[in-house]
Amino acid sequence: MAWLWNEPPIKPFRQPQEDAPCPKQTVYTISKEDQRRLAPYLPPKRDTFLTEAYRNDPAVSSIEEDEQASQHNAASKACLRNLWDNKNPTNLPHSTNQVKLMTEGLPHVTLTYAQSLDSQLSLAPGQRTTLSGLQTKAMTHYLRANHDAILIGVGTANVDNPGLNCSFSYDGGKIVELAEQPRPLILDPGRSWKEEKCEKLFRLARAGLGRAPWWIVCEESVGKAKVKERDEERITNIKDIGGDVIIVGKYANREDGVEWEKILRALWNTGIRSVMIEGGATVINDLLRERNQHLVSSVIVTIAPTYLGTGGVVVAPPRSKADENEARLREVTWIPFGQDVVMAGKVARN
Ligand SMILES: NC(=O)c1ccc[n+]([C@@H]2O[C@H](COP(=O)([O-])OP(=O)(O)OC[C@H]3O[C@@H](n4cnc5c(N)ncnc54)[C@H](OP(=O)(O)O)[C@@H]3O)[C@@H](O)[C@H]2O)c1
């Protein structure tokens, strides 16, 4: 089997119809042993920090900050604070610092992506490049099953035609229910999403096989005024399948990045307690830079045994001090998955 292959080109977009055939779902699973090894890097499960009254509350279904949402948010903080204060080892297999971020109204953030041996995500910007094998793909679906939301940057959304749903099965049979599916989030500070390129995401949401996406845009996007003409049409398309829009923070340019803390707090307020951030490189590099890395709880990287060569999309955050590492991971585990290896760790400054 080849370890690297290029996906066929994206088909021309047609707004999926109600009766459009559902994409065929591959069922993924991983061993109990691999689940156990990944557990310390995952967010705490809802039933370990929420009282019974709130466990089954579908808190990730709306962006409205209504009475129910604020009660839910307050209850989550109180339960987490209680666990944090008592440092209950049964309920907290996680780093206590990870839980501390959650007591402060910030979701658990897991950065996860696949890279080549030369630290690249794809052969070129705008080119989808499959790096990982089937086993690590299954691992990604396991991670998706354990997060409330999946976030990708608009650069990835515009080229990868991602599905962003979860087809993981704990018993190798039934895929997790819609209620357990993560919410897809498209981070698009400059409002340049070509939602017609995300035909798969729209089709899955329409078929009830995944949640509808939320489009995250910034309040002010300098120099992007002309694309706002497209906003109305885009919002209609998103809302048409049950999605929504979150407007938060400011954005000047790609180099300066976005206001992550504001974005993450806005997500917490909607009931999202954990976010898996899947790329691309601009998003990952922005989160790993010094001013943002305290917001990241875990990093889970798939390393594929291949070199892409120069010219690809590289993960390397901007260095803040000339003579110091930008970020170091601790409590690191390396897990082989087929021909790939998965490295899981926590950001040392947390
Ligand atoms: N191997 C993997 O695991 C993996 C995973 C994901 C993606 N990829 C690949 O990575 C490539 C895409 O990476 P990318 O870096 O071009 O795109 P990206 O990170 O997905 O999105 C970058 C774009 O999104 C906006 N943006 C979103 N968040 C931003 C932030 N925090 N700071 C600054 N700008 C932000 C900017 O748009 P504006 O320019 O409009 O302002 C920027 O150009 C694709 O080839 C994709 O296939 C690989």
UniProtKB/TrEMBL annotation:
This protein's pathway: Cofactor biosynthesis; riboflavin biosynthesis
Give the Enzyme Commission number.
1.1.1.302
Task: Name all Bacterial bifunctional deaminase-reductase C-terminal domain ranges.
Answer: 107-342
Origin, by domain of life? Eukaryota
Does Nucleotidyltransferase show up as a keyword for this record? no
Q: Which UniProt keywords apply?
A: NADP, Oxidoreductase, Riboflavin biosynthesis
Q: Where is this region: Disordered?
A: 1-23
Which InterPro entries does this one have?
A: DHFR-like_dom_sf (IPR024072), RibDG_C (IPR002734), Riboflavin_Biosynth_HTPR (IPR050765)
Q: Which GO terms describe its biological process?
A: riboflavin biosynthetic process
Q: What does it catalyze? A: 2,5-diamino-6-(1-D-ribitylamino)pyrimidin-4(3H)-one 5'-phosphate + NAD(+) = 2,5-diamino-6-(1-D-ribosylamino)pyrimidin-4(3H)-one 5'-phosphate + NADH + H(+); 2,5-diamino-6-(1-D-ribitylamino)pyrimidin-4(3H)-one 5'-phosphate + NADP(+) = 2,5-diamino-6-(1-D-ribosylamino)pyrimidin-4(3H)-one 5'-phosphate + NADPH + H(+)
Q: Pfam families, alphabetically?
A: RibD_C (PF01872)
**Entry GO MF terms:** 5-amino-6-(5-phosphoribosylamino)uracil reductase activity
Q: Which family does it belong to?
A: Belongs to the HTP reductase family.
Function (record text): Catalyzes an early step in riboflavin biosynthesis, the NADPH-dependent reduction of the ribose side chain of 2,5-diamino-6-ribosylamino-4(3H)-pyrimidinone 5'-phosphate, yielding 2,5-diamino-6-ribitylamino-4(3H)-pyrimidinone 5'-phosphate.
Q: Which PANTHER family match?
A: 2,5-DIAMINO-6-RIBOSYLAMINO-4(3H)-PYRIMIDINONE 5'-PHOSPHATE REDUCTASE, DIHYDROFOLATE REDUCTASE FAMILY PROTEIN (AFU_ORTHOLOGUE AFUA_8G06820)
Recorded protein name is 2,5-diamino-6-ribosylamino-4(3H)-pyrimidinone 5'-phosphate reductase
